[in-house]
Design a protein that fits this description.
Blueprint: H1 22-30, H2 41-49
Amino acid sequence: MFSKTLTKVDWKNTKLVKEIKRDEVLNLKQKPGKNIIVGSPSIVSTLTQLGLIDEYRFLVHPMIPGNGKRFFENTKMINPGN
C-alpha cells in the first residue's frame, strides 16, 4: 500500500510504502497474481512518468466539476523501455 500519511497497516500480506520506486513496482509486476489496480491520480501520474502502466481502464462516474486532482495533469509520459 502506498501512503504518505499512514504509519502502519493491519491487513495481511500488506506492505506500507512511502515512496514509489520503479524497481520495486517492476518486481511486484513479475509476481504471480492478478492485475495491479490503482485509483489514485497521484499514483497513476507517478507510475506513468516511470513507464510502468501497461493498460488504462477508465471508469466514468457522473460528478459535479470541481477543483480536485486530475489524472495526467502535468504528466510527461516516457517510453517503458527506458
